[in-house]
Design a protein that fits this description.
homodimer, alpha+beta, 4-stranded antiparallel β-sheet, 5 helices, 7 strands, globular
Chain lengths: 158, 158
């Protein structure tokens, strides 16, 4: 059997200072940030840098994709509130023409595995109510709306 | 005399394969590419990579900006048609919140110096007729419209 169609596999690597410009470039694209829960305009470097350096109880990864001879960075996934019993997961694929290939879902799945291994029992996500793509992604991984009143808040038993 | 206001100085470094994602992220931002002469949608990595690897008679630099403790990448400048007697210069500041600080103008000025040193006598630029910022930038550096009929084509004696 000759299967020419192969699943595309992503890997996560921890984000570092050298990734700041790339993450800021992705996050400053209106096509990307219109899906964000908090952000309505392009980022300012100084604010982003100050925020980045003051992060606590949070991990950020770069989503990388291996394709033949080259590896490329396509987006970012993070988990925050690691000092709580239900950390919050967020993800974006910054390379907008790479949407729809399952990279975001794979990335969140890896982070849920990481959280489970770290002993957490729950994870949360905040999703804009009209972001159907994100809702589909998180629902497929077991997230449920907390309640009708808080329709942007999602939770997952790990 | 205590001058607290200091000019912000940029440096150019040659772009390499590791800059591809960043350049693509910048160039895939509608706020950026609406100013481009040729491009009406976000870039696709495979096409961008193939184009990048097949570049000839062209140099691309990353515009970097030193600010206190950190250096950051803010945009790109290039020169193409180096096999002609009037190479074409193009520039963009990908970090959109860094617009208006003269980074683009400094970058093009450095490239004109580079072209002069390499023995070229003329440089060209293609600019959308409603891109007032670019027109102002290139005019300030000595570029003039080639003719009324070709209003997007500019030339500069080096």
């Amino acid at each position: 059997m000759n299967r020419s169609h192969k699943a595309e596999t992503i890997l996560l690597r921890e984000a570092n200072d050298d990734d700041l410009e790339l993450m800021m470039a992705w996050r400053s694209n209106p096509i990307v940030y219109r899906g964000f829960y908090l952000q309505r305009e392009p980022l300012k470097y100084e604010e982003h840098y100050t925020w980045w350096k003051s992060r606590r109880n949070r991990k950020d990864w770069i989503i990388t994709f291996q394709c033949g001879e080259y590896t490329r960075d396509v987006g970012s996934v993070h988990v925050s509130s690691l000092d709580s019993d239900s950390p919050e997961v967020g993800v974006y694929i910054g390379e907008v023409t790479a949407w729809g290939r399952g990279f975001g879902r794979q990335a969140v799945s890896l982070v849920l595995t990481w959280l489970r291994a770290a002993g957490y029992k729950k994870a949360r996500a905040s999703i804009l109510k009209d972001n159907a793509t994100s809702i589909g992604l998180f629902e497929a991984l077991g997230f449920k709306r907390i309640s009708e009143e808080h329709e942007g808040e999602w939770v997952c038993e790990l």
